[in-house]
Design goal:
Elements: H1 2-12, E1 19-22, H2 26-33, E2 38-41, H3 49-62, E3 66-69, H4 75-81, E4 88-92, H5 104-110, E5 115-118, H6 121-130, E6 138-140, H7 157-162, E7 169-174, H8 183-194, E8 200-205, H9 215-225, E9 232-236, H10 241-247, E10 250-253, H11 262-269, E11 274-277, E12 293-295, H12 300-311, H13 314-332, H14 334-345
Parallel strand pairs: 1-2, 3-4, 4-5, 5-6, 7-8, 7-10, 8-9, 10-11, 11-12
Helix pairs in contact: 3-4, 8-9, 8-12, 11-13
Length: about 350
């Protein structure tokens, strides 16, 4: 998604962007559907002379001045491809790293990288700990949100009814169905809250990760076991995400860990109060008690308590709504983020 968005947005703004992607990949199809220049190469995990030669040919043919990696493991293919070329190398870091890579070979590879763009300061600390890079090689630029696309004006009673709510407080989680996304914990929190006889509905929006089934059936089983069919709805895959987020009264992101959590800033921009887990890069986005609530991951009781707090406190919801909207506009607005990226990626370059 990030690779597609970057190529699309820079192309719209008049820059020349050629994407080098794995042959037959979903990304190749998405880029081609947008009529964006694509060169397909054989996908390789580590060093491959043939793939590096193909990348080198693509760089030279496009007369690129800057190469952007969206997956750091591709450094094994890209750095050999750039030997002897006067090309800047920028890396995006979309995930945390768990293993140290400070050996001599990785040190030689990462020496070629001019900048690694992290999403949060938490991720920056992680990278300084495990990668053979210095602080000057890292820049922190968060994901951005289109504050015109994600707006409180998208709130819709039709959407709310389609998610099973009328005058109840509507709580929602948006994301693929995955054990690590915490939907199971949210259903367990619903079981706890049900005992308090509160008026609320929960909508779980998303479908299972491709080739990783089992989570939906586990959710259905837990909902039925706890007789939550009238409270929790599995809404499946939906296209109208801006309207859904704006129509929620509370957005919950119960993931075990997220490098960033884009849906959090989308909710803030939509004027929707947020409850999220205090894990990964999320604490860099939410100030607990000011523009949202943070709870420990994998803790249904803590999650239920936070939801209970917001359900019973409309003034707190209103405070979070205002503070979150202000932060989205002042820090995460897509135009502000794009300006920071331009300073790093373009730097007198047209390619």
């Amino acid at each position: 998604m990030a690779a597609h968005e970057l190529a699309r947005d820079y192309t719209k703004r008049g820059h020349t962007v050629t994407s080098v992607v794995p042959k037959g990949s979903r990304l190749a199809g998405i880029l081609q559907n947008d009529s964006l220049p694509v060169i397909e190469v054989e996908s390789q995990k580590y060093f491959s002379p043939s793939t590096s030669i193909a990348i080198r040919k693509a760089v030279r043919a496009s007369r690129a001045k800057t190469v952007v990696m969206h997956q750091l493991p591709d450094i094994w293919l890209v750095v050999p491809a750039l030997v002897g070329l006067q090309v800047r190398l920028i890396g995006f870091a979309h995930m945390f790293l768990s293993h140290s890579k400070k050996d001599l070979l990785h040190s030689a590879l990462y020496k070629r990288v001019e900048k690694i763009i992290c999403l949060t300061n938490v991720q920056k600390k992680n990278f300084l700990k495990v990668l053979p890079i210095n602080e000057l090689q890292i820049a922190v630029v968060p994901n951005g949100v289109d504050t015109k696309k994600f707006s409180a004006s998208n709130r819709s009673e039709i959407v709310r009814k389609s998610l099973g709510a009328s005058d109840e407080i509507l709580i929602g989680v948006v994301g693929r169905l995955d054990k690590l996304k915490g939907q199971i914990e949210l259903v367990e929190a619903a079981r706890i809250l049900k005992q308090k006889d509160l008026r609320f509905k929960i909508a779980i929006i998303g479908e299972e990760t491709a080739n990783e089934g089992g989570v939906r059936s586990a959710l259905v089983k837990k909902i039925e076991q706890n007789q939550l069919q009238n409270i929790v709805r599995l809404a499946g895959f939906r296209l109208e995400i801006p309207e859904i987020i704006a129509s929620l009264d509370i957005l919950v992101m119960p993931s075990w860990a997220e490098t960033f959590g884009r849906v959090v800033i989308e909710a803030m921009a939509s004027g929707t109060p947020v409850i999220a887990t205090n894990a990964g890069g999320v604490p860099d986005i939410i100030t607990d008690g000011s523009d949202g609530l943070l709870v420990p991951p994998q803790d249904p009781e803590a999650l239920a308590k936070a939801i209970d707090t917001l359900l019973l406190n409309p003034q707190m919801r209103e405070t979070f709504r205002g503070n979150g909207l202000k932060k989205a506009r002042e820090i995460y607005d897509i135009h502000l983020v794009q300006k920071k990226l331009d300073e790093l990626i373009l730097r007198n370059s047209d390619h």
